[in-house]
Structures are given as structure tokens and as C-alpha cells.
Amino acid sequence: MYVAPSVLSANFGNLERDVKAICEAGCDFVHVDVMDGHFVPNLTIGPVVVSAIAACATKPLDIHLMVENNTFFVDLFAPLKPEYISFHIEEEKHPHRLIQKIRSLGIKPAIVLNPHTLPESVEYLLADLDMILLMSVNPGFGGQSFIDSVIPKAKKLSAMRDKINPNCLIEVDGGVNDKNIALLKDAGVDIVVAGSYVFNHFDKKEAIASLKI
Ligand SMILES: O=C(CO)[C@@H](O)[C@H](O)COP(=O)(O)O
């Protein structure tokens, strides 16, 4: 299992210290939540802060857009050369075109599904994706409880992925901890995003190791 701590749960007064700490503690990606105050009722960080994160991160960035105007934000963050940019299927009229645009910028394209969105909604996009992110909380805030229905959903998606594009990774985000990690692994999940679980642990190495099963 790959682990991508969400910097949303970091101490923003000590962002450099916290980003370095998760990288040194063995995370695989640094997950960055970009929220615009419209698609979700919260507002987070823009390219100035994300470039400061990129400057001190020794692991690749995984940028999750929770915004209304995806194309505008892809153009804003592409120069930072993240490994992944993911956007919400619920907010995109032309997902296939945006996938092609992200790939043409040298970045791996990923799509995010809210808890209620059917896995079948990405069936005809799967062949062109590097990752699908399943939200296991309603997007907008860290520290929420895990929504259990993501487990059967991940199993269904994993079966589709194995048939259509075995190289496409499945990521789950929200309420992930040492209690649900085994269920996620069994369901075929490859990457977990964990915010409060990792950042609330004094020993981040131990927290990350407990998710790498
Ligand atoms: O995208 C989001 C929330 O919208 C997540 O990345 C959370 O920030 C994860 O935090 P925890 O649920 O692990 O505390």
C-alpha cells in the first residue's frame, strides 16, 4: 500500500517542518488538497503555497482539485510538475478532454468520485487514467469519519480496473486509519490518503508504517 499524507492536517505555521517530517517518515506521495470555496465549502491553498510545499518535499506531489473550474486550476498547478492531478467527475463536462490536457502537460491524470458517485461513471475513461480516487468522506474537511460503503465500491471498481486497465491505481481518501486499512487492501486499493491519522501521531514513521500493509 502506498501512503499519501494530506497536508491539510499539517500545522500551517510550520509547513516546511511538517512536509519534511512526512517525507523523512517514508510517505510515497505528498497529497495536496486544493479547495475553491465553491465546489466545496472550504478554501485552502493556491500555487504560491503549493510551490513552497514542492520546494521542501522530497516525494512527488499528488494534487487533488476540489474546484469548479478545473481547466483554470490545471493550468495554475501544472508548472509545479506534480506526479498526479486529480479532478472531480461531478464537476467536469468534458472529462476526456481534460485527461488528455493533463497528460499532454507531462502529468498523470486522475479522476475523483464523491461517495455517492457510481464507479460505472468512469468505465469509458478508465483506459486513459493513471489513477481513480474514491472519496470515503464528503470532500471539504479533514478529520471526518470513514464512509463504509467505499469498500464494496472499491471492490467493484477494482474488478473493472483489472479488466480494462490494470495499470490504473485506486486511491481512497478520508477517515483512513489502522482500523480500516486491511479492508481497503482486500478491496484492491493501492494508495491511501491519510490526514489526521498521520499528523495527529507524534511518531509519523510509525503511523505511515502501520498503513503500509
Ligand atoms: O480531501 C480531503 C477532504 O476533502 C482529505 O484529503 C482529507 O484531508 C483527509 O483527511 P483525514 O480524513 O484523513 O483526516
TrEMBL record:
<dbReference type="GO" id="GO:0046872">
    <property type="term" value="F:metal ion binding"/>
</dbReference>
<comment type="function">
    <text>Catalyzes the reversible epimerization of D-ribulose 5-phosphate to D-xylulose 5-phosphate.</text>
</comment>
<feature type="active site" description="Proton acceptor">
    <location>
        <position position="33"/>
    </location>
</feature>
<feature type="binding site">
    <location>
        <position position="175"/>
    </location>
    <ligand>
        <name>substrate</name>
    </ligand>
</feature>
<feature type="binding site">
    <location>
        <position position="6"/>
    </location>
    <ligand>
        <name>substrate</name>
    </ligand>
</feature>
<keyword id="KW-0479">Metal-binding</keyword>
<feature type="binding site">
    <location>
        <position position="64"/>
    </location>
    <ligand>
        <name>substrate</name>
    </ligand>
</feature>
<comment type="pathway">
    <text>Carbohydrate degradation.</text>
</comment>
<dbReference type="InterPro" id="IPR026019">
    <property type="entry name" value="Ribul_P_3_epim"/>
</dbReference>
<comment type="similarity">
    <text>Belongs to the ribulose-phosphate 3-epimerase family.</text>
</comment>
<dbReference type="InterPro" id="IPR000056">
    <property type="entry name" value="Ribul_P_3_epim-like"/>
</dbReference>
<keyword id="KW-0170">Cobalt</keyword>
<keyword id="KW-0413">Isomerase</keyword>
<dbReference type="GO" id="GO:0005737">
    <property type="term" value="C:cytoplasm"/>
</dbReference>
<feature type="binding site">
    <location>
        <begin position="140"/>
        <end position="143"/>
    </location>
    <ligand>
        <name>substrate</name>
    </ligand>
</feature>
<feature type="binding site">
    <location>
        <position position="31"/>
    </location>
    <ligand>
        <name>a divalent metal cation</name>
    </ligand>
</feature>
<feature type="active site" description="Proton donor">
    <location>
        <position position="173"/>
    </location>
</feature>
<feature type="binding site">
    <location>
        <position position="64"/>
    </location>
    <ligand>
        <name>a divalent metal cation</name>
    </ligand>
</feature>
<feature type="binding site">
    <location>
        <position position="173"/>
    </location>
    <ligand>
        <name>a divalent metal cation</name>
    </ligand>
</feature>
<feature type="binding site">
    <location>
        <position position="33"/>
    </location>
    <ligand>
        <name>a divalent metal cation</name>
    </ligand>
</feature>
<dbReference type="InterPro" id="IPR013785">
    <property type="entry name" value="Aldolase_TIM"/>
</dbReference>
<feature type="binding site">
    <location>
        <begin position="195"/>
        <end position="196"/>
    </location>
    <ligand>
        <name>substrate</name>
    </ligand>
</feature>
<protein>
    <recommendedName>
        <fullName>Ribulose-phosphate 3-epimerase</fullName>
        <ecNumber>5.1.3.1</ecNumber>
    </recommendedName>
</protein>
<feature type="binding site">
    <location>
        <begin position="173"/>
        <end position="175"/>
    </location>
    <ligand>
        <name>substrate</name>
    </ligand>
</feature>
<dbReference type="Pfam" id="PF00834">
    <property type="entry name" value="Ribul_P_3_epim"/>
</dbReference>
<dbReference type="GO" id="GO:0004750">
    <property type="term" value="F:D-ribulose-phosphate 3-epimerase activity"/>
</dbReference>
<dbReference type="GO" id="GO:0006098">
    <property type="term" value="P:pentose-phosphate shunt"/>
</dbReference>
<keyword id="KW-0464">Manganese</keyword>
<dbReference type="InterPro" id="IPR011060">
    <property type="entry name" value="RibuloseP-bd_barrel"/>
</dbReference>
<keyword id="KW-0119">Carbohydrate metabolism</keyword>
<keyword id="KW-0862">Zinc</keyword>
<dbReference type="GO" id="GO:0019323">
    <property type="term" value="P:pentose catabolic process"/>
</dbReference>
